[in-house]
Design goal:
172 residues, alpha/beta, 5-stranded mixed sheet, two-stranded antiparallel sheet, 5 helices, globular
């Protein structure tokens, strides 16, 4: 992983991500949804929890990282969080499909950081080429309040600790 290029107190650099907003038409899995983009500019005036996984449907991400965020959704809301978003280098259709399999509906937004470009610009990418995955987003979490970073931590090794739902909730 490259060295971290952002810190607490920084304004979040602008990013634009692919996403497919949840709609009832997606519930039965017979539709793919309508791709759109989401800009970090839309987070102005909002408290955002952004967490990153190296890959949708991969074991740690699918079993240990994403599900606690959904299970603790109401706790995040009670602490004033407006938006919870998960980001990965997967394409927006994979991210949308993963979100539907996990039952996210409109609670957690799935974002595609194509080629991990935005994450890489922040020093938050990881080269998993030796595993056949290429360049991916690192496993990290941020709390962003009115576009200002209030918390940013990157996992120091395998597993979910500092980027997990409990760690982030403790920092809100």
């Amino acid at each position: 992983m490259a060295s971290l290029k952002i810190t607490v107190g920084d304004t979040i650099p602008k990013g634009t991500f692919g996403t497919i907003p949840y709609s009832e038409e997606l519930a039965d899995h017979s539709a793919c949804g309508i791709p759109t983009t989401l800009s970090t500019d839309s987070w102005k005036g909002k408290k955002v929890v952004l967490f990153s996984v190296p890959g949708a449907f991969t074991p740690t991400c699918h079993i240990n990282h994403l599900p606690p965020y959904l299970a603790k959704y109401n706790e995040f809301k009670a602490k004033g969080v407006d938006i919870i978003a998960v980001i990965a280098a997967n394409d927006l259709f994979v991210m949308s499909g993963w979100g539907r399999v996990e039952g996210l509906t409109d609670k957690i937004i799935t974002l595609s950081d194509t080629n991990a470009a935005w994450s890489a610009s922040l020093g938050l990418s990881v080269d998993l080429t030796e595993r056949g995955f290429g360049i991916r987003t690192a496993r990290y979490a941020m709390i962003i309040d009115d576009l200002v970073i209030k918390y940013v931590e990157v996992e120091p090794g395998p597993g979910v600790t500092v980027s997990g739902a409990d760690a982030v909730l403790a920092k809100l």
